[in-house]
Amino acid sequence: MQKHSACSSIMVGKKAAMDGSTYIARNEDNYVAIYPKKFYVEPAVSGQDKTYKSFYNDLTEKLPANGYRYTTSPDANTIEGLYEEDGINEKDVAMSATESVYGNEKVLGYDPLVPEGVAEDSITTLVLPYVDSARAGVKRLGELIAKYGSAESNGVQFSDHDEIWYMEIATGHQWVAIRIPDDCYAFAANQIGIEEIDFSNSDNYMWSDGIREFVEEHDLNPDEGKFNFRHIFGTDTKTDHHYNTPRVWFAQKYLNPSTKQDPESPELPFLRKPEHKISVEDIQYVLKSHYNETQFDPLGSGSEDDKKRYRSISLSRTANSHILQLKNDKLSVEWKCFGIPSFTPFVPFFTNANDTDETYRDISDSMNLKDAYWIYEALSMVVETHYAEFIEEDLDYQKELSQWAREKVDTVEDESKSLSGTELIGYLTKQNHEIATYYNDKAKALLGKLVTEGAELSKLTFKMDPNL
Fold it and tell me: Is position 288 within any domain?
């Protein structure tokens, strides 16, 4: 069973982005609300003689001798696997793995998943340190699947400064990948989304060897004259209509507000040109969203049936939300959000560095307010517990930090232009520590303030009548 199988992903091409960056982003969701995560820098390796073995399913692979430095977000407790999830390497290649998807019973009947094959716990570890472009990431993962098979159906995002690729693995050995057009965005939500594949266009599409023959041999294509990956390999069930497609609908409703669509439609387009250029704040809004200002908002004023009708994008089960931004000036930023994204900020970290901060690097398995993960989990719980009373104060806090982040990132960009090599790495590492400290202090200050205010909201209170 996939342990991390309830995510939401968004990709934004450089011409669709307001600042010309490429963006890939995802909420890593789990089955439980508390799932501690770390965030640190894994150093480069040279001449290693090492064999990787998965804690999850014993997959074993001899690793390349040399590997690039990269940021990583593994589980704090690795007993079930590393689950490194996302990061940016020193060649400015970004990766987020995975968006759990599901192949249908027809295709899985002819090419079942391979339990001991490549799974989410291993994908980032086996790919990100060893690739120098997004396209190379797809190629390496495809080679691993050809060699070992896939244990799960997954969507995987790759990006560099020029390209974004989204790869969907549907069965034990069959997959496709599409280059997201520069002027488009795409949103994925636990359902196969990629539509038509142009096999004459290898610049913008990649696929597993023999996929067309596989489909033809087993009479799997429901369409005449086209190869629609979603129609052939995907699902269209009641669960999809309530758990998956509404999230796509809301993201597209926000970025294409004039387009009227059905939240349960199985034909929502995968690729969209936004009606306005997309900012990093827009991506944050989507990842923080819970059907805001609709009748489906679980925290809103709709009917109880409507509030429970659809699964929202932001959840209490979101262990790690991240936005991987590759900027045109080669200064890459990983925006990291712990806690419930609706209530906590995205913290910018520069990835051309050799450390994040100890409050992100060393995480306890249980509550410890020295750790970033636990600070933001505590803040999330306090805000939601008294949502009506605390949400405006929390939103003001997030807005203030968003403004501060803009100013800070801009300042660091200017000051780093004259730096290079180890001097630049040292400077950006120092900034990461300063940024983490600033955000942690602001979060703890708000947490203390809300706990103090919340004490006055207790129902266990009594006002004495002076006439008694």
Answer: yes
